[in-house]
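In the previous chapter we treated chains in isolation. Here, by contrast, the input contains two separate entities that must be folded as one system, with a combined length of 224 residues.
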Amino acid sequence: DAMVIQNPRYQVTQFGKPVTLSCSQTLNHNVMYWYQQKSSQAPKLLFHYYDKDFNNEADTPDNFQSRRPNTSFCFLDIRSPGLGDAAMYLCATSREQGDIRGYTFGSGTRLTVV
Amino acid sequence: AQRVTQPEKLLSVFKGAPVELKCNYSYSGSPELFWYVQYSRQRLQLLLRHISRESIKGFTADLNKGETSFHLKKPFAQEEDSAMYYCALSGYNQGGKLIFGQGTELSVKP
């Protein structure tokens, strides 16, 4: 089935130790998004790629970066995780920006910082 | 500023009772409105879109521009409807990005 796959499902990292979360898609969608969702809060957009064009949200900390080496893969890098970065990280795709067909989401990666 | 508000964190009803999950938005222009659902241990998935005027799993939602609302309704709740429901908005003003409300947990009791 065409879908959005996030690995790993659970990630534990040490305070300050760089960590990378990965997302892959078989939908051939142009746009890939990374959302952060903390407990009992709305998913919050961190950044997105339209093809190779990177779009950062104004309030996304510099500690968070992303790479999209090809259409299928997108990575979220957290350079120095703090305790406040513990959250569920959701990857999503859409065929185009503002696609009225909506987004397709991965299952998420739950990040724990110890 | 563009914003989506879901005033209820938790809504608990009995099986067979009507359900209404509230969603209000603020947006200058014509937004696209969506409802997403997340069942236990599953991924977030699209439930319905206002533009489609569709009924999915018995749920409907009508966009009321005068009241800036997009409430989700179902006449008879089922236990399998228990899930987290997110209202979301997309529009030209923010480059088509999806903005979510905080979600309402629906619990349908037998």
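The mean pLDDT of chain B is 92. The CA atoms of residues 4 and 101 of chain B lie 5 Å apart. Compare these points with the single-chain example from earlier in the chapter.
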